[in-house]
Amino acid sequence: MSWITHIVATLSWILFLGCSQNEGVTCFSLSSLPISSTTSSTISSIRQQKLMVLTAKKQNKKNKATSAGAAGGFASTSSSAANTKKKSRSISSGYSTGAGSKALRDAANAFDRIRKIVGKEGTVDIYVKSPLNNPRRYWYAGKVGYILDDDDKYGDDNALKKKKDAILAQKRLILEYAKNALRPQNLGGPKYSPTLELWMAPGDSEMDCVQNKVTLEQCIGSTADISSDFDVQDVGFNPEIYVGEENEKGGLRLSNLDEQGRPISEVFEVNAGR
Fold first, then answer.
1. How far is CA 170 from CA 141, 175, 204, 223, 254, in A?
2. Domain-embedded: residue 186
3. Are 127 and 174 in contact (CB under 8 A)?
4. Which among 56, 53, 63, 48 has a CA at the least distance from the CA of 9?
5. Do 195 and 179 touch, CB atoms closer than 8 A?
6. CB of 137 within 8 A of CB of 186?
7. Which position has the higher pLDDT, 197 or 53?
8. Rounded-to-integer distance, Cα 180 and Cα 183, Å
9. How do 217-218 and 138-146 pair as beta strands?
10. Angle, to 10 degrees, between the axis of helix 2-20 and the axis of helix 40-70?
């Protein structure tokens, strides 16, 4: 009977391997085959081998899923965390440019959070100019906040780079807001918007700028110039919002500067003569 046992075992094993590799195909089971008492021990051994194969197949699938996750699939945790950093603040093509838009709310909320941490030193004032409208008029558009490390010193190269990165990361948001919501009469439309420029001044220096004490600096560049380790979550923008007659006449703007942002009038004190 040994040769019969051998044939039964071989056929059973072939059927099992064929079915295990073709999921969804109806297979014969061992119970459907004529089995004598002399073959029971052999079949028991086959069943144990089947169990080992099935276990190995499940483990192999699990390992593949884990590998896919590590490569950046849906199961990935470390990869998705590493990709959460963004270089610029996202703006949809049809977004609202008003002060209540989601993009501006997110930027303003981020600014408030950062301002509490860094204060004035991590703040830069932003001005927007359209040379096609007036090459010597700079419209105050708001403030940008950015995170400074403990070893950063105000005015050093590292701090300056972070300041420019913070502005460039929100450049589109600032310009879209300035030309569509803040002052479209002087910055918007095909007549004035093609040449818009961003200029910066020290944080909270509005009064010093009015008194001819500050030279503005143009911020030139794009998101391609932003540092590789930059995270837009570390910056914010607090937009200037007009109220009352400012909506018609406009708010703070500087006209006492030349085209390079330098004061052309003497410094004066607001309380002089009193």
1. 12, 9, 19, 9, 22
2. yes
3. no
4. 48
5. no
6. yes
7. 197
8. 7
9. unpaired
10. 20
Joined together, the tokens standing for residue 250 give: 């406009």
**166 residue type, one letter:** A
Please write the tens of the pLDDT for every residue from 91-126.
Answer: 754 445 555 589 999 999 999 999 999 999 999 999
DSSP 178-247: IIIII-HHHH-HHHHGGG-EEEEEETT-HHHHHTT----EE----GGGS-TT--GGGEEEEE----TTHH
Structure tokens at 207: 């009064």
What SS3 class is residue 129? Answer: strand
| Residues 59 and 106 both lie in one domain | no
As a whole number of angstroms, the distance between CA 33 and CA 36 comes to 10
CB 235 within 8 A of CB 148: no
Enter the tokens of residue 114. 């950062």
Look over the chain and give the mean of its residue pLDDT values, rounded to a whole number. Answer: 78
Q: Identify the domain containing residue 32 by its residue range.
A: 2-81
Look at residues 126, 173, 172 and name the one whose alpha carbon lies nearest to residue 145.
126
What's the first-to-final CA gap in the chain, in angstroms? 123
Q: Which of 69, 79, 2 is nearest to 42 (CA)?
A: 2
202: its two tokens: 């020290």
* Phi then psi dihedrals of residue 76, to 5 deg: -75, 140
pLDDT above 90: percentage of residues in the chain: 56
Residues 65 and 189 occupy one common structural domain:
no
Query: What are the CA-CA distances from residue 217 to residues 208, 220, 251 (Å)?
Result: 15, 9, 20
Q: Indicate if 15 and 123 belong to the same structural domain.
A: no
CB 251 within 8 A of CB 241: no
Are residue 197 and residue 129 in the same domain, yes or no? Answer: yes
The Cα–Cα gap between 134 and 140 comes to 14
